[in-house]
Amino acid sequence: MKILISDKMDPRAAEIFRERGLEVDELPGMSPDELARVIGEYDGLAVRSATRVTPALLEHADNLKVIGRAGIGVDNIDIAAASQHGIVVMNTPFGNSITTAEHAIAMMFALARQLPAADASTQAGKWEKSKFMGVELTGKTLGLIGAGNIGSIVASRALGLKMKVIAYDPFLTPERALELGVEKVDLDSLLARADFITLHTPLTDQTRGILDADALAKAKTGVRIINCARGGLIDEAALKEALDSGKVAGAALDVFENEPAHESPLFGTPGFISTPHLGASTTEAQVNVAIQVAEQMSDFLLSGAVTNAINMPSLTAEEAPRVKPYMGLAESLGKLVGQTLGEQIESIAVEVEGDAAELNIKPITGAVLAGLMGSYSDSVNMVNAPLLAKDRGLDVSEVRHSHEGDYHTLVRVTARTPDGPRSVAGTLFGHNNPRLVHIFGVGIEAELTGPMLYIVNTDAPGFIGALGTTLGKADINIATFNLGRRKVGGAAVALIAIDSPASRETIRRLCELEGVREVVALRF
Ligand SMILES: NC(=O)c1ccc[n+]([C@@H]2O[C@H](COP(=O)([O-])OP(=O)(O)OC[C@H]3O[C@@H](n4cnc5c(N)ncnc54)[C@H](O)[C@@H]3O)[C@@H](O)[C@H]2O)c1
Ligand SMILES: O=C(O)[C@H](O)COP(=O)(O)O
Q: Would you state the torsion angle of the CA atoms of residues 493, 499, 502, 503, taken in this order, to the nearest 10 degrees?
């Protein structure tokens, strides 16, 4: 399998991919067209923030299974498009948080003491001691907008500097605020009270322009603002006006609405300082994120373990080998239900009992849906199957039973149809071998593999002979033959594994046999 590293990344990433037996190309700085030309060769793409993973690029990504972001922000990756293409997107949410928090603190000091301007003036031979009067941080109020990983670290450092820390974050619980030693406030209070404001939220529809002209007007006169999160959180034109008017005494931006920011009306404004998206740029952070992204991507490609995925449930390296056989079973049950009930399905319930109930149910449900949705469209996998199911209006529920039934472990898939609920269930023999044990109310024991036939007929002597003769005439060899029935003379079910698929004509002949109620050609 092949990996493309398309942004500048610590060499440890490539080393790890190679140590794990994956081929790697390091091609940072490609244009979008160049990237589109080569992306089809790769199974994995490792990026930082420079590569734009657009829907147009993904149209060319025929083999891509995973995109790994060596860093936190994934706003350069079109997650919805990646999900539609069945590509897992993962990031490294903690590897650069300390480094970025330290950059925010460095920016706060730089603003408080006008370090960049004082440095430039001194090195220009001026000795403007009285021009660069600063402010102390001790006793000042720092307003955090966003108190997640980075915001929390900034808070702890600021408390160490004897600042008062207040935080606006709708998802911050009172308990967590207490633990962090910060006061949870609403945005208007933060604006009214903070001497320094630092932003640490992702860029979303709710946070875009969170510091716009209105918000800046509500801020304390002389406030100093730091943004080491994402460009777009601050309205840059409004910030320029607020700096010019003196409403804002200083602003330090590491990130810009349009990057790389080769020009900006803010450049040269007194009180404004900037760095070129350096928040995560320390040796330590870059080694951390490179190692983490390479390990996560390799684990996924080689063992199916899913860590820090944005568009798929997690599955640890320990869980992966235990869950994997269930995923095979679940996918087969999904295929069986999809191929036999098709368009009639209104909702799906996935139930687990016995050993299966102790496992992470999400990947099992994902596999059921991948099998089921695979009956309706090509290139379905666990990433895009839930989306496709949702698009189809399929309601999906999960139930975990604590009791053990007739089997030590069981996965049951029930489809609600206009004729009522219809269930199939399977178990694992010897912990690894999936077996169907129930099909629509009939007990059976069958391996779901290759081309198969599902036949429902009225239980009567002579039927099996007629069936064998019909298949023989069509030159179809029977690999395994599994039978089940509810009662003598009632409906009987046959699941027959065949060595070659049955043609339409053969299916028609089978349907014409006496007592046959239903014939479905299946493929696993
Ligand atoms: N400059 C850099 O180089 C650099 C480096 C790393 C991370 N970042 C950026 O920093 C930001 C924060 O990263 P993190 O790891 O702390 O993320 P995080 O997910 O741990 O924290 C984000 C916090 O923002 C809060 N939030 C979400 N919506 C909000 C809203 N409308 N108002 C207020 N708070 C809201 C969330 O509740 C969460 O607590 C991200 O945008 C990330 O991309 C930048
Ligand atoms: O979200 C992040 O992790 C930062 O913005 C870092 O971006 P970078 O990897 O391009 O430095």
A: 180
